[in-house]
Design a protein that fits this description.
alpha+beta, 20% strand, globular
Length: 110
């Protein structure tokens, strides 16, 4: 299932739900294991949301290229939290600057 993050501050971001869920949990928008159909990051809470995501990125270990068994092809390498969250973090920062909300919505699983 796809999750779409949208705001008037920038372009829409599409993310698979398996990748969006951990980010939403880190930002305090997802309490349980189930993904809500939609939600919003309000401008007045944007600084706190951005701070939580930046803190999680700073504490997260990055995938290592030192492993001998790691794939050499860049396409096959593991994606770290910093890379996964960058587009969303950029949208949140732009929305904060322009005082716009960021909406997210999960598509139907049909």
């Amino acid at each position: 299932m796809l999750v779409t993050f949208s705001s008037k501050a920038g372009a829409d971001i599409l993310m698979l739900s398996q990748h969006a869920k951990p980010l939403l949990q880190l930002m305090g928008k997802l309490d349980g294991a189930e993904l809500a159909v939609r939600g919003v990051f309000m401008p007045e809470h944007m600084a706190q949301t951005i701070g939580r995501l930046e803190q999680a990125i700073a504490l997260a270990p990055e995938p290592s290229d030192d492993d001998e068994d790691a794939p050499q092809d860049p396409i096959a390498r593991q994606v770290g939290l910093r890379q996964r969250a960058f587009p969303l973090l950029d949208l949140l920062r732009k929305a904060k600057e322009k005082n716009y909300p960021v909406l997210w919505e999960a598509s139907s699983p049909w």
